[in-house]
Amino acid sequence: MFGLGMPELLIILVIVLIIFGAGKLPEIGRGLGRGIKNFKQATSEKPEEIPADTSDNEKEVEKLEE
Questions:
Q1: Other C-beta atoms within 10 Å of 62: how many?
Q2: Rg for the chain (alpha carbons), in Å?
Q3: What is the pLDDT of residues 22-65, one digit of tens each?
């Protein structure tokens, strides 16, 4: 795991604990978990079909520019 052993992980955890405090750790962990979940979900989904004809989009852009 990125060449990090148990001592390095403990040092990082202690530094995070000092910086953010014990009350914020669950909130930070929850946010990280959601971020990882969303990333996995986004990478596993099939990309939506891209329309071959973009002339409709170009017309809409021209209308907005006017």
A1: 9
A2: 22
A3: 888 888 889 989 999 988 887 876 666 555 566 666 777 777 77
Note whether 13 and 6 are within 8 A (CB).
no
CB 21 within 8 A of CB 29: no
How far apart CA 1 and CA 30 sit, in angstroms, is 21
Q: Which of 66, 47, 63, 46 is nearest to 55 (CA)?
A: 63
**Are the CB atoms for 26 and 35 separated by under 8 Å?**
no
Half-sphere exposure of 12 (CA within 13 A, CB side): 6
| Per-residue tokens: 3 | 């060449």
Report the alpha-carbon distance of residue 15 to residue 9 in Å, rounded.
Answer: 10
